[in-house]
Amino acid sequence: MTRVDAIRARRQGLVLRAAAERDDLAAGLMVLATPLRVADAAVSVGQTVRAHSGLVLVAVAIFVIVRPRRAFALARSGFFLWRTGRWVGRSLGLLV
């Protein structure tokens, strides 16, 4: 076997190994397909809300007028979650 034949044989083995590794990686990433789809949808919703913030404001105002007790209960819960999130973020920041 000449040196060129040895290089060709090694290259063919590497190409086959790379193809097998790509297949393994693709199979492993299939687990993340659904969570990535959900995250992509969430980003899309966020972009839409940001682009149409006036409509969101009108919808919130209507909700507050129609269901004031429920709106303020949700606001109170949201404020609690926001404060908790900030506290957790600061606490984890100290650990890092």
What oligomerization state is this entry in? Answer: single chain
Distance between the termini: 57 Å
Counting helices, strands and paired strands, the structural category is mainly alpha
Helix content: over 70%
Mean pLDDT across every amino acid position: 91
Shape: elongated
Tally of alpha and pi helices: 4
Largest sheet: none
The low-confidence parts are none
Strand content: under 5%
Structure description:
With 96 residues, the protein is mainly α. The chain has two domains: 1-51; 54-96. The protein is built from four helices and no strands. The chain has helices spanning 3-29, 33-51, 53-66, 68-95. Helix 3 crosses helix 4 (68-95). The longest helix has 28 residues, at 68-95. The mean pLDDT is 91.
Relevant terms:
96 residues, mainly alpha, 2 domains, 92% helix, 0% strand
Topology, please?
Blueprint: H1 3-29, H2 33-51, H3 53-66, H4 68-95
Helix pairs in contact: 3-4
Q: In a few lines, what is going on in this structure?
A:
The chain is 92% helix and 0% strand. The chain has helices at residues 3-29, 33-51, 53-66, 68-95.
